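Hi Y.,

Following your request, here is the sequence exactly as I used it, all 67 residues.
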Amino acid sequence: MKLLLLVLAAAAFVAAGFYWQQPWIGAVGLLVLFVGMFTDRDDVANDDEKHSFETTKSVRNMRSRNR
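Below is the corresponding structure, written out as tokens. Let me know if you'd prefer a different format.
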């Protein structure tokens, strides 16, 4: 949700920069977009985060044997 709001704010800044012909407003929009991209979290848990007995590396090693 935060990423969507930041992308919409960035688009508004870039559009305002074109409308008023002020490049610094568009640059602020690009900075907001970069902040949104780099602060976005990935909430999907992988096998290591689930505290399972097998790590992803061990599972890959087991599946790759004799094939």
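The helical segments are 2-19, 23-38, 56-64.

Thanks again,
Q.
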